[in-house]
Prior knowledge:
Blueprint: E1 2-6, H1 10-19, E2 24-26, H2 29-34, H3 40-53, E3 58-61, H4 67-78, E4 84-89, H5 92-104, E5 108-113, H6 116-125, E6 129-132, H7 134-139, H8 144-158, E7 163-166, H9 172-181, E8 185-188, H10 190-195, H11 200-216
Parallel strand pairs: 1-2, 1-8, 2-3, 3-4, 4-5, 5-6, 6-7, 7-8
Bound molecules: erythose-4-phosphate.
Erythose-4-phosphate (E4P) binds near residues 26 and 136.
Amino acid sequence: MKFFIDTANLNDIKEANDLGILDGVTTNPSLMAKEGITGQQKILDHYVAICNIVDGPVSAEVIATDLEGMIREGEALASLHKNIVVKIPMIPEGIKAIKYFSQKGIKTNCTLIFSAGQALLAAKAGATYISPFLGRLDDVSTNGLDLIAQIRTIYDNYTFDTQILAASVRHPMHIIHCAEIGSDVMTGPLSAIKALAKHPLTDIGLQQFLADHAKGNN
Ligand code: E4P
């Protein structure tokens, strides 16, 4: 399973990249605003800064909701760097935009996926990735992991190339369950990625090994 980090924070991106396990980055307009990145030029520059840290796919989201606007913005984003993936919302105009970009060989990430039907449509349009929002479904008492499993079955039935990018991941158990189900990618915060490494028995065991080594060498 590929690991993407879901943030526009350059320090977090660097820290995850330095671990050596990072495959890509996802952002969205809320994450950009959270970092104080506003205004068209600053936003475009920030995407380039992210691409200069991570050698992997970087999702950059369009703001337009009409076909012409999505195509204009998406082409401008794609021209920034070879690793940019154009993030398009799951709306009817978005499906048309995904079809357009897939025919032009531009990679897309269909965002705001909350049902299997939406995932099926995005795959048929040729999306490179689809982003089902796991945590946001859990937030409304619906099992987000069930949706990931349902989409996995559907894509495998027809050997769609579209990759399942489990999004809105909130904690390490989400990551582990996504890996069990066979999600192609997961995107989550640095805290969830780092939490995978933690185990109290590892810390206790290491302390003991170091203490015993010190005894023998005194
Ligand atoms: C997807 O790509 C989104 O950026 C993201 O995962 C949404 O996560 P949230 O529900 O924690 O805001």
